[in-house]
Amino acid sequence: MKAVRLYEGPEVRIEDRPEPEFGPGQIRVAIQAAGVCGTDLHAARGRLPVPNLPIIMGHEGAGIVEGVGEGVTEFSIGDRVLLLPSETCGQCTACQRGHLGLCPGAQIFGMARDGTFAEKIVAPISCVMALPDAVPYEHGAILADAVATAYHAVLTRAGIQGGERVAVIGCGGVGYHAIALAKLLGAERVVAVDASEGALRRSEAAGADMMLDARQDDIRKAIRRAAGGDGPDVVIEYAGKKVTVELAMASVARGGRVIIGGVGMESPQLGPLVSFVGREIGVLGSMGYTRSELEDVVELAESGRLDLSGSITGRYPLEDAAQALDDLANHVNDPVRLALIPGQTN
To answer: Are residues 301 and 170 in the same domain?
Structure first.
């Protein structure tokens, strides 16, 4: 089978590999679409350590079951499925509570075990969920990452209620879906903030009421003015930078909530406690989602209440994975999510 493997260097290679064998409790899936995420780009550029090289890249995928191991009763050959991005231990407190993103022993596809940038993949059934016929494979591939992650941030961590004003800083793949979900959950006004004109155009399509260039002078005042009143009740940060986290905390209204979903190595400053405490600002991190939240997102996509028609902004044959990564790095056509389609030809 064809597969995209990451080597030391880092170097991305397209190779012929043996088809993976499945064992008890596992299934083999013929990948129909794989999402290309910023995490994949960081790994391919050497900015994110990958312990088990060489490895097949990718952690977003959907496809068709073509083999089932001993003891598997939940799925049959021919079933449509989506893949969760990691295998969790199933034993820790986080797993017992259903919060897959907090498992300390999680093995992420494309990082700790072979991933979805291949024609076929083997996965334990704990990493698989049924994909309804109404949901295209390319949408199914991103539901368990770009969409469910945003849903957890908007619904559970932010607790957005009808009539609230929201700002989203960083409107790439996850931020784009946070905008759409905030509007779906009843936000009165959503302000999109990004340094990319293309990202802002796409934010408007996702439902943003006001788009702000993050490079403008005094962006903090602009955000508060655009949100109205005392500023946004909720600010969701998906850029993962010191300056954007500090901007989020400075922009939020008194008594508001700041949700930090962007991942990075920088260290933002909290600010004077007298100001921070006196304004009663809540600051929460947001990582991953629960299985029940993923089920909710699948249902929203199946029903059509969540429109994902603008989510996949580029499609590439599996053999063009390196080009897809380059295009993502260079923001070609202002991507939300790119998809690799095994079997597609140029």
So the answer is: no
